UniProtKB/TrEMBL annotation:
This is PaaI family thioesterase. SUPFAM superfamilies: Thioesterase/thiol ester dehydrase-isomerase. It holds the Pfam family 4HBT. It comes from the Bacteria. NCBIfam families: unchar_dom_1. CDD domains: PaaI_thioesterase. GO terms for molecular function: acyl-CoA hydrolase activity. Residues 55-129 form the Thioesterase domain. Keywords: Hydrolase.
Amino acid sequence: MTPRPEGEAAHFRALETLYAQAPINRLFDSTLDITEPGIARIRFRVDERHYHAAGAAHGTSYFKMLDDAAFYACNSLVTDRFLLTTQFNLLLTRPMKAGEVVAEGRWVSGRRRVFVADARLIDASGEEVARGTGTFMRSQIALAGLPGYRTA
């Protein structure tokens, strides 16, 4: 019998499950991994369904994965409330083609009401294709009340 994770690890696993069960993620082949406080990684696959008319990933894919990685890096530090994105700046540096991409999110500052995090996208060749910085604030939405967020 595998023991259930406790404390911090249980919170991380619950956030990973919450991510996996979000309806938007049915549109993306992606998985979230939180290994330590303030750090989140999302592995996802870009394919031609994500392309714009010129044959590379549309900006919505960049934004979604950067925002999610930064968001979960911050929410890994908050065990009672769901955070909300209040602002996000993007820098798209290279076209993103089909293949595996990793979104790396890292908490930068804030622990009370507003949080700041950076994120970057790394393509299959190891090149950074985008980066972003976001701000996130505590909402009135309890994590424990959300479908998918289970710590036990």
